[in-house]
Write a structure and sequence with these properties.
Elements: H1 2-33, H2 42-78, E1 106-109, E2 115-118, E3 132-133, H3 142-150, H4 157-170, H5 174-179, H6 182-189, H7 208-217
Antiparallel strand pairs: 1-2, 2-3
Length: 223
């Protein structure tokens, strides 16, 4: 009986040893066949993502800052940079309601002595109808067109800003504005605002140097 028990123990130990050896050999073979994986550092990936996000946020912030500075520069050029600029009619008087464009026509004489009419109003001197000679015909111009295009419901400062940015975008200058390519942007929109250099409306024009100073004074960054 004792001999049989001893033999069983010996056989069990031998079987375990054989199993262990086979398992060791198999593990070594599996390890040799498996491709070597790069070390994964989760912190490195996190730092890269954070860095990319910071760069993106910086670019977005700079673009927004340049947009705001460009709009303030336009207001400087148009003579509407004051606290009541969004309520200013051509000539300097004020309108009282932001419900809609005031549509008040003013007559003026341009640099060539022509008697013209304008409905320019607000921070960007948006016109409901174009300047026309006495006896001429009116036509729908910028404000009514952009109002319909953007679905603007009023003439509030926010709507006026949206109006100006859309005109800039239509002129192909929005990317220049956001990137700080000031001279390029001004050149593209000079046909919209008579106060810009080279506009050619026989009205007083601001110099590029004066506009650059106003732009930078209001937080704009040149490319």
């Amino acid at each position: 009986m004792r001999g049989a028990l001893t033999a069983a123990v010996v056989l069990g130990v031998a079987a375990w040893w054989v199993y262990d050896q086979v398992a060791t050999v198999q593990a070594a073979a599996d390890e040799a066949a498996a491709p070597e994986l790069p070390f994964f550092d989760p912190w490195a990936y996190t730092e890269t993502a954070i860095s990319d996000l910071q760069v993106s946020m910086t670019q977005d912030t700079r673009a927004a800052s340049n947009e705001a500075a460009f709009l303030l520069m336009l207001r400087f050029a148009e003579g509407t940079a004051g606290v009541n600029g969004y309520r200013t009619l051509f000539g300097g008087s004020l309108f009282s309601s932001y419900d809609d464009h005031p549509r008040i026509a003013k007559q003026f004489t341009d640099g060539q002595g022509r008697r013209l009419w304008t409905t320019a109003a607000g921070a960007y001197q948006a016109m409901a109808v174009s300047p026309i000679p006495t006896g001429g015909s009116t036509k729908v111009n910028t404000w009514d067109r952009i109002k319909a295009k953007l679905g603007l419901r009023d003439f509030t400062p926010a709507s006026q800003d949206a109006f100006a940015l859309e005109l800039i975008r239509e002129a192909g200058a929005l990317a220049d504005v956001r990137a700080g390519r000031l001279a390029d942007a001004i050149n593209k929109v000079r046909g919209i605002w008579a106060s810009l250099p080279g506009a050619g409306y026989s009205q007083p024009e601001k110099s590029l140097a004066a506009l650059t100073a106003a732009y930078q004074r209001n937080g704009g960054a040149l490319a």
